[in-house]
Amino acid sequence: MTATADETRGTPHGTAPAPLSVLDLVTVGAGRTATDALRTSVDIARLAESRGYHRYWVAEHHSMPGVASSSPAVILAHLAAHTTRIRLGSGGVMLPNHAPLVIAEQFGTLEAMAPGRVDLGLGRAPGTDGATAAALRRTDRLNEGADDFPQQLAELIRFLDDDFPDGHPYSRIHAVPGPIQATSPGGVQSPHRPPVWLLGSSGFSARLAGSLGLPFAFAHHFSAQNTVPALDLYRESFRPSAVLDEPYALIGVSALATDDENEARRQVRAAALNMVRLRTGRPGLVPSPEEAEAYAFSPMEQEFIDSWNANVIHGTADEVRSGLDDLHKRTGADELMITSHAHAGDLRLRSYELIADAYGLPND
After folding, report:
1. For 170-187, how does the pLDDT look when each residue is reduced to its tens digit (9 = 90+)?
2. Where would I find the H helices in the chain?
3. φ and ψ of 348, to 5 deg
């Protein structure tokens, strides 16, 4: 049993140049709690579903006070209980941090909760710093996980499909919920299993996804200079598979729309200060715009801010729509997955609403 192209491809709505989706890091602003952030995630997921966004993914991060998405499977189960039709998935689960069997069990459980609308996006980075990665993996051989990624991926897919060959050490081990239940007395085969996506910010996963005929998600929001080369490599490497007969690639895009252009600039600068602190080993809660305005940036920090924000599409709804249209033309991405960063959850929610309005997305 494998996923199908119908479970991968989205349909554009309104005047959007491609299907629009949401990437959520469950960000926590200063003065707010993880509970507040998770409530915002539910609100955004409900809005996204009602406005025709295609899928809603949650990213795995660790040891970052301002990012409450350390357990994507748990968050996705919560979102599944509050939605009915939008696709839900990981963007992504960092495979080297986990045993493949555990991931197969978690996403088999999610599939049972929300049949036919669960995606399994996989990355090979740790989603954190080296010390935290060592704690997660209980090893100091951190290169081992990335080097073993293709083998870990193959093992995970075999657990999802329950098709280890006879004689394999795992041939009598089964991920449950999963296909083994259909072969038990009285069992019924589920018609779905989560589609596997590969995520990346360089050429490694692009080439691997292409060679395996899998859909590919590229992290344009933090690796913009590599976007076009990686997508080209994916398309050049693509081999048709039981999953896809032609390439399908989405890109993550950082975009924030506000009712007031100046407010967008203030929020984006505060989010960039958060990145400065993260990149210099001082991760914290997302600062308020007032804190960012009072912060004395060094010349090196200001250079980073300017470079980072050059890849954040922000402003009024019309300005964001124009930026997304231009990005789509430059990349030819099959889907745009938008991540909106702001100190306050209500501004993140408003951003997705404004973008939907700008493209005339449906309002169910």
Report:
1. 999 999 999 999 888 887
2. 34-50, 72-80, 100-113, 130-137, 142-147, 149-161, 203-212, 227-237, 261-279, 289-294, 299-309, 317-331, 345-358
3. -65, -45
The H or E element that residue 268 is part of is helix 261-279
Q: Is the distance from CB of 89 to CB of 7 less than 8 angstroms?
A: no
User: What percent of the chain clears pLDDT 90, i.e. is strictly above it?
Assistant: 84
Q: Are 32 and 312 in contact (CB under 8 A)?
A: no
> Is the model's pTM score more than 0.90?
yes
Is 79 in contact with 34 (CB distance < 8 Å)?
A: no
Phi and psi of 255, rounded to 5°? -145, 135
State how beta strands 118-123 and 249-257 pair.
Answer: unpaired
Here the tokens at position 49 are: 């579903």
Rounded Cα distance, 198 and 215, in Å: 7
The span from the CA of 273 to the CA of 349, in Å, is 21
* CA dist., res. 96 & res. 221, Å (int): 22
DSSP state, 192? -
pLDDT tens for residues 219-273? 999 899 999 999 999 999 999 999 999 999 999 999 999 999 999 999 999 999 9
103-138 residues labelled b (16+ CB within 10 A) or e (exposed): bbbbbbbbbeebeebbbbbbbbbbbbeeebbeebbe
Nearest one of 255, 282, 266 to 343, comparing CA atoms: 266
To which residue do tokens 């991968």 refer?
A: 8
At 156, the amino acid letter reads: L
Q: Please state, in angstroms and rounded to a whole number, the distance separating the CA atoms of residues 272 and 96.
A: 28
- Identify the CA nearest to 154 among candidates 200, 214, 107: 214
pLDDT beyond 90 at 148? no
Q: Which residue has the tokens 């449906």?
A: 362
CA distance linking residue 42 with residue 26, whole number of Å? 10
Question: Residue 352: which of 342, 364, 338, 362 has the closest Cα?
Answer: 338
Instruction: Give the strand pairing for 87-94 and 118-123.
Output: parallel
What number of other Cβ atoms are within 10 A of residue 176's Cβ?
Answer: 15
Sign of the alpha-carbon dihedral angle for 214, 220, 222, 223: positive
**Spatial separation of the C-alpha atoms in residues 305 and 327, rounded to whole Å:** 20
CA distance 301 to 254: 20
Residues in a beta bridge with 286: 29
Give Rg (Cα) of the chain: 20
